[in-house]
Write a structure and sequence with these properties.
Blueprint lengths: L60 E5 L12 E5 L28 H15 L7
Antiparallel strand pairs: 1-2
């Protein structure tokens, strides 16, 4: 007589169909990690400033609306984030390239060259010199 066979395992269950959609991201992004609701100075220090109220924070902090609802007011919630430090100044401009050296001065004209310049100028001023 053959030994009894152990019961066979149940067939694997089929995957659920259709698959559930992945969880949707939060409609409101989280505030930056350095923000702090304890710095709010709204009435009640509750970080809720509905229309007409100004979102305020302690000195050195700035209000950032997070579009969340608070106490039944749509989008009235805010948080306080540190003021951004001023950006560093731009790096200095590179130095200007050096100027080329000046050409050496012309040697003084001889008496003959000075006479030629005077005659040429006189002819040009009277329109008698037609070539250049």
């Amino acid at each position: 007589q053959a030994p009894p066979q152990p019961p066979s395992p149940p067939p694997p269950s089929p995957p659920p169909w259709p698959r559930p959609p992945p969880p949707s991201p939060s409609p409101h992004p989280p505030p930056p990690p350095q923000c702090d609701d304890t710095q709010c100075t709204s009435a009640g220090n509750d970080c809720c400033a509905p229309a007409g109220d100004t979102a305020t924070c302690r000195h050195g902090w700035t209000a950032v609306r997070n579009q969340r609802d608070c106490f039944g007011f749509r989008g009235a919630s805010y948080t306080c984030c540190p003021l951004m430090p001023p950006s560093p100044p731009p790096p200095p401009s590179p130095p200007l390239p050096p100027r080329p050296p000046r050409p050496p001065p012309l040697p003084p004209m001889s008496a003959a060259e000075r006479a030629l310049v005077r005659v040429t100028s006189a002819f040009q001023s009277h329109g008698l010199l037609t070539h250049s």
